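We modelled the chain as a single entity of 304 amino acids. Its sequence is:
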Amino acid sequence: MGADAVHRSFVVVDVESYGDLTRTTHQRLAARDGMYQVLMTAFADCDLPWDDKMVDDAGDSLIVVLPADVPKSRLADHLPTRAAAELRAHNAIHSHGARLRMRMALHFGEVAYDGRGGKSSAALIFACRIVDTAEAKRALKDSAATLVVIASDLFYDSVIRHDPASHPEAYRLVDADVKETRTEVWIRLVDHYPATAPVTARYPQPRPRHASTTAALGPIVEVLLRTPGFDTREGRDLVLRDLPFASSTARLSSDRADTVSIVRSCEHYPDGLESLVEAIRFYAAGTTAMAELDTLMAARLGDG
């Protein structure tokens, strides 16, 4: 690299399954807008600079090149948490097709600029490669998280492992083999919580009981039909992905019949309905419908 090269830090984000054929053009535009809003808000919350000249737009991804004087610790400790929080906020008010889950790569290195505002950097190319690490994609797909961070070995060794606030223990080392790049990177699921968290911490301990009648389940069905993240077919598909018995659930065409079928299916498994509610909580936490659902579940379990 030439004498004009300067040191920079890189944040690269990529939207999971942006090209999914089930997304409409309108939903992709909403997802793109969400990608910008999530990152811009997270940057502001972390007191990180944002300038359009620092950002390259690649359609389903953004490449942000930060000045050398930006503390890298902010990228490691604050940014992932704030970005995940903004992703959850976005997903809570959007339909399935417009929802977002992202991969975020962190790296740094030298960048050379030409007279046209363009730049050349092997380190930047490297950052764009590792965001596509197959193991990171797999980890995100198999989880209920909204964000997976991929830190280069250099970034992890120089920044993350020295800072307890960056949660170095939450990262694991994996192989990355993307195009011409073969290396090792560190990945972390930022907001990964068990999809079926123990119900005893929130509800009374359930006692053995017979399956409920459809009429008895009616109030729960009514609340589910207006619960964000479960009120559409797409939302229900996403929630069921987190349940081990999803494949045995009969799916029906109308919203009400589909919801009844799902609830009745849950009744056949130990703590099945409780597991469903906890999976829904990931998308509906803090909503009025979620509070009503908690009340109904507590009363139901208390009655045995």
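As a brief sanity check on the tokenised model: The chain is about 40% helix and 20% strand. Confidence is low (pLDDT under 50) at residues 194-211.
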